[in-house]
Amino acid sequence: MDVRPVAPEFAVAPQIQPTDMTGLAAQGFTVVICNRPDGEEKHQPDAATMRAAAEAAGLAYHHIPVSGGNFPASAVDAFRAVRTEADGSVLAYCRTGTRSITLDTLANPDGLSTSDLLEQAQDAGYDLSSIADRLEN
Questions:
Q1: Count of domains forming the chain
Q2: Number of C-beta neighbours around residue 71 at 10 A
Q3: pTM listed for this prediction
Q4: 64 — phi, psi (to 5°)?
Q5: For the domain that residue 11 is a member of, what is the CATH number?
């Protein structure tokens, strides 16, 4: 499991498995967000399976799917709500982690500057310079 810390109570990861949930709970995560639509890839666990595994491990689970490089305001708002209302550390995942960190960056739940957001993403291994203009607006 490739967990990439982004902020003190937030991390992203490429696709995780149902069996990873107990390990995430042991690492101190309390909330998991899935940013993949069901059926995106053949062997990807569906949201219902992941929710059941998360809840069995004592984790809250949220499914906020986005695809095709589209980040609608409704998804950004939902992501921000989960992050700001979370009681504890949040892990968001998708196929590579890019959608998850992009949603977090667009949601900007910590109210960071554009340069700080981009640096935070870069430190986690993601280049989000392509959305800098959107962050400025």
A1: 1
A2: 19
A3: 0.94
A4: -125, 80
A5: 3.90.190.10
Is residue 132 a part of any domain in this protein? no
Q: Which domain holds residue 84?
A: 4-127
Q: What is the pLDDT of residues 7-55, one digit of tens each?
A: 989 999 999 999 999 999 999 999 999 999 999 999 999 999 999 999 9
Would 137 be classed as within a structural domain?
no
Mind listing the pLDDT tens digit for each residue in 48-89?
999 999 999 999 999 999 997 889 999 999 999 999 999 999
Within a domain: 49: yes
Sign (positive/negative) of CA torsion 103, 48, 25, 2? negative
Is the residue at 133 inside a domain? no
* Total length of the chain: 137
Burial of 73 (0-12, 13-18, 19+ CB in 10 A): exposed
Containing 113, the helix (H) or strand (E) segment is: none
